[in-house]
Amino acid sequence: MRARLAEEVAHARPFYSDLEHVEHDGVDWFCVPKYRFPPGWRIGDNEIDSAPIVFKLVSTYPEGEPYGFAAPAGINFKGQAPGNPGSPVSPPFKGNWQHFSWAPESWSPSANPREGSNLLAWIRSFAHRLAEGA
């Protein structure tokens, strides 16, 4: 793992202690096994308060901003499938995944990996998309 990314992972671990990393075919993939979801989200007919979320970072990260994340297939908001699903993803984590199209409103990485746009800020930003519902 690149030094910058390793430092960002260390910065995120106090908040996401179960954060998983897999380098697969030169791509850095991450999984947050128990990401908190706002009320209304379901997998099939079962309401959830947390579920895994996976995402990848491009090789040019952090200058190359991240894009999208995925949650378990069958995820829905009060019975409605997520809108603007984005392209399919095949992460190196078990399961079938529903892609969410998502990008940061602004992406400004700092020379200091613990400030500005970083891995922790990216993971936290998913909550904004999930708060939108379907």
Outline the structure in words.
Helix content is 17%, strand content 29%. The protein has 134 residues and is of the alpha+beta class. It has one domain (3-131). The strands form three sheets. It has a three-stranded antiparallel sheet with strand order 1-2-5, with no helix packed on it. The protein has a three-stranded antiparallel sheet with strand order 4-3-7, with no helix packed on it. A two-stranded antiparallel sheet has the order 6-8. The longest helix is centred in the C-terminal third of the chain and has 13 residues, at 119-131.
The average pLDDT value, as a whole number, equals 94
Q: Which percent band covers the strand fraction?
A: 25-35%
- Low-confidence segments, ≥5 residues, pLDDT <50? none
Coarse structural class: alpha+beta
- End-to-end span in angstroms? 35 Å
| SSE order, one letter for each helix or strand | HEEEEEEEEH
Percent helix:
10-25%
Tell me the Rg in angstroms: 14 Å
- Helix count? 2
What's the total number of strands? Answer: 8
How do the strands line up in the largest sheet?
1-2-5
Total domains, how many?
1
State the major sheet.
3 strands, antiparallel
Overall outline: globular
Q: What is the oligomeric state here?
A: single chain
Brief characterization of the structure:
The protein has 134 residues and is an alpha+beta fold. It has helices at residues 3-12, 119-131; strands at 20-24, 27-36, 41-43, 46-47, 50-57, 69-72, 75-77, 97-100.
